[in-house]
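agent> Task received from the user: take the single chain below, predict its 3D structure, and emit structure tokens. No templates, no multimer pairing.
agent> Plan: (1) validate residues, (2) run structure prediction, (3) serialize to tokens, (4) report one or two observations.
agent> Step 1 OK, no nonstandard residues flagged.
tool_call: predict_structure(input=
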Amino acid sequence: MDKIEQQREHFNSVAERYRTARKHENHLLLKSLIWEQFLGRHPELKKDGLVVLEAMCGFADGKKILETTLNITTNYEGFDYSDEVLETLKEEQPDLKVFHADAGAVELEKDKYEVIILLGGLHHVPHMAKEVVARLSQSIKPGGYFINLEPTNGNPLFKAVRERIYAKNSLFDEETERAFEVSELMDFFESSNMKPVDITYPGLSSYVLYYNPDAFPSLNLGGQKMVRSLFALDKLFLRNTLGRWFSFATLSLWQKAG
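)
tool_result: status=success, residues=258
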């Protein structure tokens, strides 16, 4: 079995667990706080009818994030390799434009999209992540944007911790997925003619406790007041060297050269 097919079967096996856990109010609040502070700094994206592609779309979280946070409508398309996820999406949102595709082979129209959003997808295809970014970037209009959220390692200790988690936690498939060093992730985009607009490091204390309740239900402690308090502390480090060092994730906005 090749790595893409193995990853597809693995995600199909955990998809409902992932979806159910991420309906918890603590997770939803943290996600809204992260995206409000990030997208709120970029009024250039606040445009009704924004032409958007969500790559490796999962349950179309990117669509909801953009439309809810920016208070806009989007001209949305999405694709994913998981047939079960797409079937669920089409049942619940029959008008949603989503299609089945492999990120490493998908054929996309050049210079079509104003925004591509990719949330936690590249670490599922680490063996071809750079090629995926290059392929997707070709379909962004000159001057358009690429939004990416990805697990990253800011220091060797956290890398070792994550690798142990991947080996022990059934939500992950250690054979096919891995997080990237921050510099490695940056290189994927810079090599694809994308320029950094905003780089943040939200994978701090609130992220550790509340962003992955599917993987770490025992860490989902306290209520919404705790979520807000920890995120207020994390905000002090979102865009600095300490944040990069201690963060388990990188959230970035890139612009294609005109």
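agent> Step 4: summary for the user.
Residues 3-256 form a domain with the Rossmann fold fold (CATH 3.40.50.150).
agent> Done.
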